Amino acid sequence: MRAAILKTIDNFLIDAGSRLQPYQCPLDDVGQRNAIRLMARDNIKRLIDFQKHDLPITHDTYLKVFELRHRIDDGYE
Asked: Rounded to 5 degrees, what angle do the CA atoms 50, 5, 61 make?
């Protein structure tokens, strides 16, 4: 289950668009896929607000934030 959540998050981060889509979850079972997407969505919300946590972020994370917000805050160059 953790692997499916992480893969769903990774798929969202590298995919165009601002919404988590069903195809981004690697599971075939619709019920499980919906549950995984809900958990991934909650984690994505926390992850992309990286100024409020000290978790490591990837290039995909801050590029997704830029895509969603069309800007990078806090004086980054």
From this structure: 30
Write b or e for each residue in 5-36: b if 16 or more Cβ atoms lie within 10 A of its Cβ, otherwise e. bebbbbbbbeeeeeebeeebbebeeeeebebb
pLDDT value for 77: 57
Question: Which residue type sits at 24?
Answer: Q
Q: CA-based Rg of the chain, rounded to a whole angstrom?
A: 13
Find the mean pLDDT for residues 55-69. 88
* Nearest Cα to Cα of residue 60 among 48, 45, 75: 48
Helix axes 2-14, 59-69, angle to 10 degrees: 50
